[in-house]
Amino acid sequence: MLNFLLAAALAQAVAAPPAAAALPSDPLPADWVAVPDDELLVFTLANGHSFTVRLASRYAPVHVANIRKLAAAQWWDAGTSVYRLQDNYVAQWGDATEKKPLAAGVVETPPAEYSHAGPTTVARLAQRDPYSEWAGYSRDGWPLAGNGATEWLPHCYGMVGVARDLAPSTGSGAELYTVIGHSPRALDRNIAVVGRVIDGIEWLSSLPRGTGDLGFYTTAGERSPIVSARLASALPAAARPHFEYRRADNPRFIAWIASRENRSGPFFTVPAGGADICAALPPVRKAP
Amino acid sequence: MLNFLLAAALAQAVAAPPAAAALPSDPLPADWVAVPDDELLVFTLANGHSFTVRLASRYAPVHVANIRKLAAAQWWDAGTSVYRLQDNYVAQWGDATEKKPLAAGVVETPPAEYSHAGPTTVARLAQRDPYSEWAGYSRDGWPLAGNGATEWLPHCYGMVGVARDLAPSTGSGAELYTVIGHSPRALDRNIAVVGRVIDGIEWLSSLPRGTGDLGFYTTAGERSPIVSARLASALPAAARPHFEYRRADNPRFIAWIASRENRSGPFFTVPAGGADICAALPPVRKAP
Predict the structure, then answer these.
(1) CATH homologous superfamily for B37-233+244-278?
(2) Which of B54, B57, B175, B276 is an S-S bond match for B163, by CB 3.0 to 4.6 Å?
(3) What is the pLDDT of residues A121-146, one digit of tens each?
(4) pLDDT of residue A260
(5) Of the candidates B268, B115, B185, B180, which has an alpha carbon nearest to the alpha carbon of residue A129?
(6) Residue B271: closest C-alpha in chain A
């Protein structure tokens, strides 16, 4: 009973309220909008599991253009793997040897798309956090943090960044990582964030941790080979995955934010009075 | 090369500076102090791996007394398991059936040790976060958050809490969980936090995610059986693990905090200007 009730109470912490409840924070059916096919990149591992990245083409256009070219060239389909798992930090994948030539047309030294002119938020959290003056939401499902009119994609759990060399290198986009622990916001504005794992992150976060320095696997046999990476738009229509983001430009979303900032119900006796953006990531779901 | 340099740069984000570097944030040898044997609780899984919890006896005395009694009675040695793995949230363990009688002397309804009178901090972070007016450090290696003179142990990655029923239940301490994702600070002041996993959390965080609601395993066969839980003080001297916390009551620690708030070095071009307590957890290490 304890587990069940705890589970039921904690459900409030991880999922939208049930559709049956007529809460001010409940979305309307029209609040769910399809993620465009060319923003969905599906990586499939040799073990048969896959994970899907939504690409942030608006915020990191040159890096995302690179990633699309690499996917079109089927660059990740041979010789790549998940080669680094550092606990409470990142899973990283690509070509562990870094010897594989990039695909034609890939910009090897993209500009530092670490932040951009904004704001593009349509809703914001009530309180600041130590990493930015404000944090909030784009209309279409992206978390954003900012100082004044400059904004950026924050390093939250599941966000995808581009591994890079020392500054001013930016990385091409061939080597990617996602956050699998407490959100390392100190990386904000220091690395290009290009997307978010919106499905299947458990196939990365539950991989064995690497025993080498910083979680790199010490032998090739420990790596998880990648067998393909495909944009949904490159798949036959019948094979395309479908995901939806929740629009943020409406009073229901504002009520949802408030519900995250002050949890209610029989489990919570002390509401926090605030939330950080990584604890209130915009809802995304598989299309029903 | 890219990976290596990224790795080297990110090392600053996860480890203390190398001992060779004479930085103001470098600890003196005497800054490392042994964790008392009766604060170390070692759980061993049937797969041979183990993880160690440091118990916060000062901040949750009744719950920790319960946990010590359960360990002394070898309560976890039979019929218990890690039975819940919810991605980006918690790993939970104990008696999945909740039928097993508790050990003699265990207080079934402890007081709500969710916060306490303070402050007991000797150092603080520069900026507040959305969850508390301030956050900082006890002298002896505990992270703390607080409003005014009331303080509590925050729900950071690796912190251990007591699963409970709906309020005003508090849970006995037989069913425990640890955070394996972005720190769910909304739980602060709503659950008793009784410790921190200071070693071996990767054997929890890399377990397969449960496919039932909220990450509960749907079959008994998916659970990871626990074969023993022992206080270090109950082990033969030669078999005891030894860990050390870094004292926080000195200028070197203050400099360490500053180094976490504003990362430097050739990798970081934009310092954050702040850190949240869960991104700057007090250093703990195995005794050299």
Answers:
(1) Cyclophilin-like (2.40.100.10)
(2) B175
(3) 999 999 999 999 999 999 999 999 99
(4) 97
(5) B185
(6) A186
CA distance A10 to chain B (A): 8
Residue A68, SS3 per DSSP: helix
Q: Binning pLDDT at 50, 70 and 90, where does residue B21 land?
A: low
Residue of B nearest to A99 (CA): B1
Nearest to B181 among A126, A127, A157 (CB): A157
Residue with tokens 């195995």: B286
| HSE toward the beta carbon, residue A75, CA cutoff 13 A | 26
pLDDT digits over B158-173, tens only? 999 999 988 888 899 9
Task: Render pLDDT for B90-144 as a digit per residue (tens, 0 to 9).
Answer: 999 999 998 999 999 999 999 999 999 999 999 999 999 999 999 999 999 999 9
Fold of A31-234+244-286: Cyclophilin (2.40.100)
Q: What digits encode the pLDDT tens for the residues A170-222?
A: 899 999 999 999 999 999 999 999 999 999 999 999 999 999 999 999 999 99
Q: How many CB atoms lie within 10 A of CB B18?
A: 9
Are the beta carbons of A175 and B216 separated by less than 8 Å? no
Q: Are A18 and A273 in contact (CB under 8 A)?
A: no
